[in-house]
Amino acid sequence: MARFNRLGTLLLATTASLALAGCNGADGVASPGEGVIVVPGTPTPTPSTPTPTPTAPGTPAASCPTGTSDAGIVGSYRGCRLPSRIEGSLSLQKVAGVAYEINGRVDVGVDIGGAGNAPGGASATLTIAPGVLIYANTTNADNDFLVVNRGSRMNAEGTETQPIIFTAQQNLTGGVTDESQGLWGGIIMAGRAPISNCNATVAGGSVNCENVVEGTSTALYGGATPTDNSGTVRYVQIRYSGTIISPNNELQGLTLGGTGSGTTIDHVQVHNSSDDGIEVFGGRTNMRYLVMTGTDDDAVDTDVGWQGFIQFVLAIQKPVNTQTDNYSTEIDSNNNEDALPRQRYTLSNFTFVQTSTATNAAIRLRGGADARFVNGIVVGPTACLNIVAGADAQGKTTIRPANTALEDNGPPVFNSVLFGCANPYAETTVNNVTVTNAEMAAIFNAAGGNNVESATGLLTNGFYPAGQATTATAFNASTLNPAGTSVLVQTSYVGAVSGPNDTWFRGWTCNSNRANFGATSGACTSLPS
Fold first, then answer.
1. CA 376, 307, 260 angle in degrees (round to 5)?
2. Is residue 32 pLDDT above 70, yes or no?
3. Most buried among 138, 279, 351, 416, by the most CB within 10 A?
4. Where residue 443 falls among pLDDT bands split at 50, 70, 90?
C-alpha cells in the first residue's frame, strides 16, 4: 500500500509448518507452536447437528448446515450465511451444493485485548474444511469482510487438491472476468504480537501498544506476545478482493495485524486484489509459498515493526493498474522511522514479474526498515529497486550503518539476486533526501553478494527461470535462521520455482491471463466441480 507517513495516524475505518521468526538477530521471536496463549474461556458451542441430505453435483442443497442461515439460491449453490459474530466455535464442512456467505462484517470472537483480559472479550474458533467455498454477498463491497479478532483463531486448512476458496458472489453466477477486482473486502487476522505504531503514548512492542486495523473502525491489533497464534491459512485462494475505502485506508486480500509466530500462512494465492495481495502490520508471522496474481497495488506489503521471513513468493502484477505506486513488495514503517520494534524483513526465493509501467520499481524499501533479499529474480519494464530514506545525524535512515542503540542492522543486503529490468534503480526524493542510483548500486554490488545488476532473458513461459537464472549459484538461506529454528530451507536455485518440473504451485491455485499453473489448476473465473 502506497504511503510514506500514513501509518502514524491511521484512520482505520476496519495461518506449514514454517514460523519465521524475527530476522537478522531479532529477539523475542519463535517458531509456530513454541508458545500457546492463554485466553478467557469460550462460550459453549452449539451442539452440532447433521448436515443437509447429500445433494447431486451442480444442484443447490435443500437446506443449510447448523450455525448458518439460508440466504437463498446463488448460481448452482444454496447460500448459507455466516452469523455476524461467531461465538465459541463454528465448523464449516464441505457440503455438496452449499456455499457459505459473508454478508457485511463477520467477526470471529470478541477482542480480548493485548493483555488478554479486555472487558467482554471472548475467544472463538472458525474451522474451515478442505474444499469449502465462501463468497461475499457484495451488495456493498466495502462492507463485506471477515475479521478474526485478537484471541480468536481461524483454521482454514485446504489441501493441494481441495483448496478453500474465498471469492465474490459474482464468481458463483458467471459474472467475473480476468479483469474483475475489488468486489468485496477481504480477510483480516488480528493478533497480540508486537507492533511499532501505538495509538497511545506507550512503548512500541509493549502490551498496551495497539492500533486499529486499516479498513475497519474498531478491529484492534498489537500486544507483547510474539508467539501469538491467530490460526492457520493453508492451501487457500482469495479472489477478487480488496477495497479502497479512502486514501491510505484500504482492505487487502489478506491483512495480518500483529499476528504472532504461532500463526501459519502457507500456500496462499491472492488473485486480482484491487489493493495489496497481503499486507502485514507488525507482528511476527512468517509465510511461505505465496502466489500473488493480478494485484492492483503491492503484492506483499509489510509495515510497522514486522519481523519475520518469507520464502517462495511468485508475484505477477496486473499489467494495467489503477494505482501509480504498485510494487511487487513494499517494505515500510510508520511516520517515526526509528520507532521500535524496527521492521526486519527477510525474503528468500522470490520471482517478481512487474508488468506495469505505472510504478517506478518492483521493490520499494523505505521507512528505516532492515531488509535481506536472497535468491531472487526480478523483471520489469521500469526499475527493479527503489530505496527511500529520511535523514538524521547518522545518515540516510534506510541505508545508514548499523547502530545497536537504534536496533538498526544497517543497509539492506542482497545475495544471489538477479535484476532484469529496464533500469536497475530508480531514485525518489522525499523531503530533499535522495538515495542515489550510485548508492543503491554500491549496496547491491557489495563484495560477495553474487548479484547480477542487469540481465536479459531471465524467465521463460511466464515465470520459469531461464538464461543466467538457471546457472546462478544459490545462497544458502538456512544460514539466516535464528538459533534453534529452521525457518528457511536451503535450495539449489534462485527464484520462487526451480523450473517446469517444480510442483508446489500446482493444483491448489487458479489460472488466469496473468499466469497458467497447469492443467491441475482450474480457471479463476470458474469454480471446482
1. 120
2. no
3. 279
4. very high
